[in-house]
Amino acid sequence: MDGSNKNALIDEELQWPNGIALDTVRERVFFADGHSAQEKIEYTDYRGVNRTELVHLTDTHVDQVFGLTMHDNTLFYSDWVSKGIHLTNLESGITQVLVEGLTRPTQLYLHHPQPYPENECTAYGCSDMAIPVPGGCHCKCRVGRKLKADDKTCETAPEPWIRVEDWRCAQSCHEQAYCAVEVSNPTIYRCVCKAGYQGNGFQGSGCTACDFGYYKSVLRPGQCTQCPDGVSSTAARTSCVCRGGLQWYMGECTSDVPEVTARPTTPLVFPGTMPRFESCPDTHSWQLPEDANYVTWDIRLRALDGYDRPLEISPRVPSKIYYGTGSMIHQFTATDQWDNMVKCRIEVTIEDITPPQLVCPDDIIVETSGESAIVRWDAPVTSDNSGKKPMLTSSRTPGSRFFRENSPHTVTYSARDEAGNPSTCSFIVAVQGMK
């Protein structure tokens, strides 16, 4: 929920994805395409596979769907053409109009009187926002503020512009630019050239390095500033080089520079070695345990620059991650002070090889004075280590008619879990004459 590890669930045959709703019980995502060439409602699982169209609605009950919401086994949706709100039962397929005569119904919200469970991250100690992530919580700051070294407290950023997530900008930024927001007006996001570069920041026309004798010291829009007469700029074009024992401070060459507490020297020269991850496994696979529906992994990553100094990894690596069956891709990056980036991509796959549990009824003996008898029984009890109900099929169903002529009869039940693991059981139905 902190916005990291984004993956596209559906990016094909989709034009106007207006509505989206979660079926958390069955782990499905419902989505509506309101484009005139589509006009349908579909669903997929949390991994973006098993895409299925609600065919009982297509061409009969949906025109231009906008909003979706879900409760139990009922899907609610708004439609601009019918100007109403509809509901459909996903088991029976029965669809009806809930509200009609509206002008242009858009988003839907469902209120349930049962209170939401308490957010475990409330007591985590974040000063601004606490976001649940796999295996714990992560503190985030409001726009215009940045996280301090304790990873929990936010403070106002000293720079006039600060970098934000790339997705906030409507256009792609140039490689020498960041998506940024002005601290004093944190409402508009735009591409801004880095220190030492000028331009509009957009991909293509982008950013160019400041000319010799010009500088730009911080992340901000606008042009580079010319150094004072007789003063040249640094190679990075982020400040000016003073003469006569003067120092560059607050945009001028001066001898009046306040003393600061000594701190470790930061190398200014690129070492010639790109940053690296000490260990980044391309793939990691497990088999789901027979007695659990998840596995955990404590990811340990360490990124170093060319001087073997540790680098901050983005997004933050959670202490423990819980995985169900399927695949998940993690993408981590680390950037050194020269803006050289290294990436770590890990694909985690959890395989379920345990068949579902299936218990059939005991053998059944039926006496009849006729040639046949209708026999009823309780369907087998099924379970699976994934925690999801297996699909159950049978050669005969309760209430079937069995004949004495071919007795005894074998009834076979087959169960198949979501991973495709099969399991079967059988029992005998014997029909005999009255004694």
UniProtKB/TrEMBL annotation:
Xref: SUPFAM superfamilies: Growth factor receptor domain, YWTD domain
Domain EGF-like as annotated: residue spans: 165-203
Positions of the UniProt region annotated as Disordered: 380-400
Disulfide bonding pattern of the chain: 169-179
One Pfam match: HYR
Domain HYR: 351-433
UniProt entry keywords in alphabetical sequence: Disulfide bond, EGF-like domain, Repeat
PANTHER family (alphabetical): EGF-LIKE DOMAIN-CONTAINING PROTEIN, VITELLOGENIN RECEPTOR-LIKE PROTEIN-RELATED-RELATED
Name this protein carries in UniProt: Low-density lipoprotein receptor-related protein 2-like
Organism lineage string: Eukaryota, Metazoa, Chordata, Cephalochordata, Leptocardii
Gene designation per UniProt: LOC118417668
